[in-house]
Structures are given as C-alpha cells and as structure tokens.
Amino acid sequence: MIYVQGNGFLIAGSIFLIPLYFFIPNAVCRFLCFFLLFILISSKFYSEYLIRNIKIIRQDSELRVFRFEWVKMEIKIVNKGFLTAFMLLAGDSSGALSVINNNRNLHTLLRKSWIFFTWEGHCTERGKFVIGPVYIEGSDPLGLFPFKLIARETTLLYVYPINRSISVKAPGGIPLGSIISSNPLFEDTTHIRSLRPYQKGDEPRRINWKISAHTLRTGSLMVNEYEATASYPLMIFLNANRNEYPLKKQTLFIERTIEAAAALCLKASLERQKLGIVIYSSGLEGGISVIAPAAFTLVPILESLAVLDWKKKLYTEIPLQEDENIRNSVKAMLDQGKYLSYGTRFFYTGPDLGDEAYIRLESLKRFHLSLEYLIIDDRYMPALVPGNSRRYQMKEKGHEII
User: Fold this and answer.
1) 246-265 pLDDT, tens digit each
2) Is the pTM of this model over 0.85?
3) In CATH, what is the architecture of 231-393?
4) Any idea which architecture 1-160 has in CATH?
5) Which of 95, 269, 302, 335 could covalently link to 129 via disulfide, CB atoms 3.0 to 4.6 Å apart?
6) What burial class does residue 399 get, using C-beta atoms within 10 Å of its C-beta: 0-12 exposed, 13-18 middle, 19+ buried?
7) Which residues contact 50 (CB under 8 A, 6 or more apart)?
8) What is the mean pLDDT of the chain?
9) For residue 334, pLDDT beyond 80
C-alpha cells in the first residue's frame, strides 16, 4: 500500500508555470519558469523512482517467547535503485506490547544497498499479538513529493506463560518421562544402544546397512540393539473456569495455575514424555479444548495456553441437577479420563475440588491411570486426598511453583 502526497502541488505548479513560459516574452522569466518546471518534474520522477525501488522485508513471520522476555524485531529495508534515498523514517506498529524501544528510526540508503531496522519490545502479558505493518516515510531530496510505503506482511507473536520451575516426585515409580526397562517388548527403535554381529534369527529390519557396508570384508553384518524403555504419557487437566476460583484472588490464582500447567509441560517435554492437555474454561467454544498425548505437542499446548482468555464467556455451563453435587469440571475430568491409554498420569491443576470430588475421581483408577493434583488454595492442604492420590500445593508467588 502506498500513500503519495504532493500531486496537487505538481498540477498547480504546472498550470501556473506553463502559461507563463509560453506567454511572457521576457527571456529571464521564461528561463525561471522552465527551471522551476524542470525541478518539479525531476522531483516527481525522483519520488516515483524511490517508491518503485524501495522494498521492505520482514525477517520473521512468527515469533515465540515467554512472558517477561524481550523480543527483537528485524526488518530489512532494501534500495534496489540507482538513486539515494535520503532521510527515510522507518517505523513498525507494536501491537499490544506494553514497552517499546526504538520502533522509529531515520535512515539514509545509498544506491543498491540495504540496512536492518531493528527494535525490541517487552512482553509483559501472555497472548497472541500481531506486530506490524511496517511503514516507511520518505520524499525526494527537496521534500516536494513525500510518500509513505506500508508493507502488508506482519509478524505473529505468541507470548507463552512465564517459564517457572517445578519439582514433581514420581508416584508409584511412574516418571514424567520414559524409563529404562529390562523387558525387550519396550524397545524404542528411535534410540540405538549398541551394535553387535548378526545372529541367526535376527530380523532384517534390525540390520544397520550403513555400518555393515564397511564391514563386508569380514563377512559379517551388524545389527542394532535398542534401548528398552517404558513410556507413561502425561495428561494435564487445566481448570481455568473462573466460577470455581475465589473472586478476591481470581486473576492471581488462574494465571498462576496456567503457569503451573506450562511448567509441567516443559518438564515433561524435557524428559521426552508424550504430553497432552485438557483445558476447561468458559472462554472456549464448547467449554473444553483437548490435545491428546503424543510426541511433539509442546508447541501447540503452549500456544493454546498463550491465547487462553478465561475472562470471556463463550460457553455457559449446564446447571447441576438436584441429585448432583460435583462440579462441572469434575464431570469433564471423569469423561476425559475414560479415553486415556494405560498407565497415563492424569494431572489436575486448579482450585481444590473437595473430598467428595476426589472420591468420585478415584473411579478412574480402574482404567489404570495415576491421579495427581496440583492445587492452589489459601488453606493448608494435606499431601494426600481420599484414595491416597498425591496432592501438591502450589505457591501463590515466586519462581518455584511448589
């Protein structure tokens, strides 16, 4: 998109100077008219030439950072022409970033040259932000025909919840990640442990053909041996329903719970864990969002946590019947737990549910799940809930969640 100013000045000057040139007999006046008309046309040509030869290239289409980190934007400004662009004012729309440093700069571009225009923003809030578009204001050397170039490209910025530290013990020997197993049925073909000579009965898919090609002189094939591991998927249930949090500390508690869920995700991913999440909130269509446990789900989960707006009310909860005395979040957790695979660690994060809800959730153990609870509450919470499932109490503030 291009905005050009000064066309009216060219038209008005031409209408005034051309008749003077043809109808005034004085040679000096005619020369001055011709000279001024030449300057107008040359300046207009200079401005149009710059417009067609200055290009704006945004270096990143997407960026991802954690909350309270600085993000650096880079824009490349290229002058492809043979004329110098003097005093270009480059700027970038900062979107919703709260602190901006140097997002407007003056530059001079020589012919066939380029520069990087950079600025930094401080991400004080999590969310999904659109940065841009970039604009450049310039003109001919005399400033008669200013113009403004606006690039259509924007940068999509995901601000994840702040990166916190969390230390969670393994209940009953089940870890967050994979563990070494002596059972060969758990062999992981993505992790080669060693090589050995081929033996009769070995499967052809175990042969390492690349290494065997170097050992053909000895007449032996080499076979891969893999690490035997047992994986226990982690499924997080994030309760971000504002109606279940105390009104006085609602924002503090919900944001802290989102940070705790993100910390669990980062820890599980670090330990090569299959990871999934259930987000329960009235700010979601249908009230619930599910990402099933699988490999490489960390980025989609963090993006979902970044854009979660629990203050909206896109979904209205179904009122509880008279014979029901458990929350809708507990009903959602019971429903989702039925579809989890064997050995999954089902990790609840949110406000305290009450003893009766914990008793009801114990029924999920018949699906061979491990239940754990990460609770945010003002009161002191015992380490175990009814049924002997582990309960952790998160801190309201600080770098460490627990």
Assistant:
1) 988 999 999 999 999 999 99
2) no
3) 3-Layer(aba) Sandwich (3.40)
4) Sandwich (2.60)
5) 95
6) exposed
7) 79, 81, 83, 85, 138, 140, 147
8) 84
9) yes
